[in-house]
Amino acid sequence: MKLLEDRILKDGNVLGENILKVDSFLTHQVDFELIREIGKVFAEKFKDTGITKVVTIEASGIAPALYAAEALDVPMIFAKKAKNITMNEGILTAEVYSFTKQVTSTVSIASKFLTPEDKVLIVDDFLANGQAAKGLIQIIEEAGAHVEAVGIVIEKSFQDGRALLEEAGYPVVSLARLDRFENGQVVFKEADI
Ligand code: 5GP
């Protein structure tokens, strides 16, 4: 997605060997015009696949997932990272190791929001080693629902996430694919859309 790649080049900051900071438009401050376009691009790709829910994980997945859900006209569900006393009914959980925080946390979704009739599009901001997506897939499948595909805003193709998901049979659709960092600059490879 050219608009996204241009924005990454303009405002993204490479941190160390393998982190891209995009807090001025995606992961902290959110540029709703750009993220709305991202949502529309996901929706256009999946409009004929019968998606009934978009699922993400808090916090930075919420913005792109919400715009994708709006464009597909389906609900968006975000998995919660902290236990909450209001979640007092059936909850589905998975353990997720966070690449950026380097801690394992339990993520959960109330079971009432997913049914065996659901066809789910997972949307997340980044794909690194695929642990967030893997945890979401575990929860969605425990509910008996079907995972149609994983939609990623920024894939770091030099990490293992895509291979992990594709080998397990889940299609990955990424709007920007980072091949490598060279002298602190992003080098892209061809994106899926
Ligand atoms: P994974 O679970 O695929 O290993 O990592 C994906 C999660 O880690 C994303 O939900 C995202 O929050 C975070 N993440 C991974 N790599 C980066 C990165 O380079 N920059 C930022 N801002 N977040 C990242």
Automatic annotation (TrEMBL):
Query: Where is the protein situated, by its record's location annotation?
Result: Cytoplasm
Q: Which residues bind 5-phospho-alpha-D-ribose 1-diphosphate?
A: 128-132
Described by its record, this protein's role is as follows: Converts the preformed base xanthine, a product of nucleic acid breakdown, to xanthosine 5'-monophosphate (XMP), so it can be reused for RNA or DNA synthesis.
Give the transmembrane ranges: none
Q: Tell me the lineage of the source organism.
A: Bacteria, Bacillati, Bacillota, Bacilli, Lactobacillales
Q: How does it assemble?
A: Homodimer.
Instruction: Report the superkingdom from the record.
Output: Bacteria
Q: Which organism is it from?
A: Streptococcus vestibularis ATCC 49124
The family classification in the record reads:
Belongs to the purine/pyrimidine phosphoribosyltransferase family. Xpt subfamily.
| Molecular function, one GO term | xanthine phosphoribosyltransferase activity
Question: By what name is this protein known?
Answer: Xanthine phosphoribosyltransferase
- Tell me the keywords, alphabetical order: Cytoplasm, Glycosyltransferase, Purine salvage, Transferase
Q: Return the InterPro entries for the record.
A: PRTase-like, PRTase_dom, Pur/Pyrimidine_PRTase, Xanthine_PRibTrfase
